[in-house]
Design goal:
heterodimer; A: about 350 residues; mainly alpha; ABC transporter involved in vitamin B12 uptake, BtuC; 15 helices; about 75% helix; disordered N terminus; B: about 250 residues; alpha/beta; Rossmann fold; six-stranded mixed β-sheet; four-stranded antiparallel β-sheet; 9 helices
Chain lengths: ~350, ~250
């Protein structure tokens, strides 16, 4: 993007690149569906899509059709939803807490989710009636609630409830909550897990898309879209936090309400994603920073750009996790960090030079 | 617009920062707030700006109680320039000023050419138009201060609150900002440390340990007795040969 152009119109959405978004997403999903242990040509995928969506009746190998529709397509779409959702949560938390290290898991959500997951799978909570996802979601909600209560109690002692200390209180409460739930998780694993169970849960904690079905997409897609809408709706409020909460308030932002809505909705999106695919790290921390370097820090552009980049990044990471070690699927969290860290380093160095 | 505070109390951790402060600033008036460090000037400005809801007492904008007004409506009337407001974001100067339009934009309302014009004028008013495309972190302290003021101007407020706005400015820009503020057709409340600059205000309020201890025209408030009691300094009044107006020169008490 040419800098001169980007600077001349500070708050307008530059629509002429917006039409590229669905195209890029479509291509990423196609790549995610095509590439894998067995490569499937694009025309086969398009035929299966046409058969499923319009009943076109092309002759396609039934095994290929099964793989495409039941496994790879739903998996690629959910990967995109998770990437977008986590990146958005990162954008929001970094903006509201004014801390570049803030990420979606700051509020104890991943720690709570893993506790919920091990409580169900290893400790046998719910006696088989509760799925791993439901357990993880409940754990995430519990941890988030605890962190918010703790942050509220710590923040209200500082006099001004909406003062800058509130952000510090949230971060510290998040750290305390995460530590607590991580310890509970470790305790449950150490006490009752077999070696096989421990390995399984480790894999899940690093992110795992292999069990994804259409049911998950019907939950993940609305969650990601709702998260995107909430962020876009509040884009000017997010901008107003640039110089802190007091500055946002003097620009007419009802700070408590907006912060509550944004943090709660992003926690919900994160919890939904984590409960389905585990705690995929790196996306929510790094994609927002990378996008700030590329499109700037105004949320009118940063929000859609981060959602798109997060989606494409995670679909790509999922492809790599499936093909990099033949015959084995790596946890996607390993790939996001292995690929993402060097990529981010390049952006960081280039960005520093551009200054 | 008239801004009035009635019996404002504010305490943090049992420390009383504001103690029964009442004042009324008339439309178009430039009101100076002076007082030693920690006397409550900033806290009072924050309460007047609607950033802190006082435990007791109330703030009125044109006789309307502020605590019943939505934050957005307050921001359409009142702009506040904080003493220090920093960011780590890579934000452009023009974008920082554009934030001033926030109270007038909604989620569905697009940025307009009029908003652009208002932002350009605000940048021009603080003599920063030539730096509009610079990044925030490349600016000096004084330049940042002028951008904060420009953002407040972009809010087109009818009441402007400034907390020691001339702190980081070189003398030329101190004078130009003060002149700009005085000439604005709006109600201004400005906390100042330079007492000679405070002489240019229409009225002055003196804060001391959370109380408003004196209020009136600069010539009557800024006398030797008041300066000794509030600031603990001796003052000599000299006469500026240029315009025959008094200039203060300060000495330690020992």
């Amino acid at each position: 993007m040419s800098t001169a152009l980007a600077l001349s119109q500070p708050l307008r959405i530059r629509w002429h690149w917006a039409w590229l978004t669905p195209l890029i997403l479509f291509m990423a999903v196609m790549a995610g569906t095509s590439i894998g242990e067995t490569s499937i040509p694009m025309d086969t995928i398009l035929k299966v899509l046409a058969n499923q969506l319009w009943g076109a009746g092309y002759a396609v190998d039934r095994i290929d059709a099964g793989i495409i529709w039941n496994y790879r397509l739903s998996r690629a779409i959910l990967a995109g939803c998770c990437g977008a959702g986590l990146a958005l949560a990162g954008v929001v938390l970094q903006a509201l807490l004014r801390n570049p290290l803030a990420d979606p898991f700051l509020m104890g959500i991943s720690a709570g989710a893993s506790t919920g997951a091990v409580a169900v799978t290893i400790a046998g909570l719910g006696a088989g009636a509760v799925t791993l996802s439901l357990g993880a979601f409940a754990g995430a909600g519990l941890a988030f609630g605890l962190v918010v209560m703790l942050a509220h109690a710590a923040g209200s002692g500082t006099g001004g409830g909406r003062s800058t200390q509130a952000a510090g209180a949230i971060i510290l409460a998040g750290i305390a909550g995460s530590q607590l739930f991580n310890a509970i998780t470790a305790f449950i694993i150490a006490k009752s897990a077999s070696a096989e169970q421990a390995r399984g849960i480790m894999f899940w904690l690093m992110g795992n898309l292999s069990g994804v079905r259409w049911d998950d997409v019907t939950l993940g897609l609305p969650a990601a879209l709702a998260g995107l809408l909430v962020c876009l709706w509040h884009r000017r409020a997010l901008d107003a936090f640039t110089f802190g909460a007091d500055s946002a308030a003097s620009l007419g932002i009802p700070v408590r309400r907006v912060r509550g809505i944004l943090i709660a909705s992003m926690a919900l999106v994160t919890a939904v994603m984590v409960s389905m695919v585990g705690a995929i790290g790196f996306v929510g921390l790094v994609i927002p920073h990378a996008m700030r370097f590329i499109v700037g820090s105004r949320h009118t552009r940063l929000v859609p750009a981060s959602a798109l980049a997060g989606a494409v990044f995670l679909i790509g990471a999922d492809i790599i996790s499936r093909i990099i070690v033949p015959g084995q699927v790596l946890p996607i969290g390993v790939v996001t960090a292995l690929v993402g860290a060097p990529a981010f380093a390049v952006i960081l160095v280039r960005g520093a030079r551009a200054r | 617009m008239r801004l009035a505070a009635q019996h404002i109390d504010w305490a943090v951790h049992g420390h009383r920062l504001l103690d029964d402060v009442s004042l009324a600033v008339e439309p178009g008036e430039t009101f100076g707030l002076i007082g030693p460090n920690g006397s409550g000037k900033t806290t009072l400005l924050r309460v007047l700006a609607g950033l802190r809801k006082p435990k007791r007492g109330r703030v009125l904008i044109d006789e309307q109680p502020m605590n019943a007004m939505p934050q957005r409506d307050i921001a359409r009337s009142i702009a506040f320039v904080e003493q220090q407001a920093e960011t780590l974001e890579r934000i452009h100067v023009r974008d920082a000023v554009a934030l001033g339009r926030t109270p007038f934009l909604s989620a569905l309302q697009p940025w307009s050419d009029e908003d652009d014009a208002i932002v350009s004028r605000a940048l021009d008013d603080v003599d920063m138009k030539h730096m509009a495309e610079r990044l925030w972190h490349t600016l000096s302290g004084g330049e940042r201060q002028r951008i904060h003021i420009a953002r407040a101007l972009a809010q087109q407020p009818r009441i402007l609150l400034l907390d020691e706005p001339t702190n980081h400015l070189d003398i030329r820009h101190q004078l130009s900002i003060l002149q700009l503020v005085r000439e604005l057709p709006v109600t201004v409340i400005i906390a100042l440390h330079d007492l000679n600059q405070a002489m240019g205000c229409d009225r002055i309020g003196v804060m001391e340990a959370g109380q408003l201890v004196d209020l009136g025209e600069p010539q009557s408030v800024l006398n030797a007795d008041r300066l000794y009691r509030t600031f603990g300094v001796h003052v000599d009044f000299l006469v500026d040969p240029a315009d025959q107006r008094p200039v203060m020169r300060f000495r330690n008490t020992h």
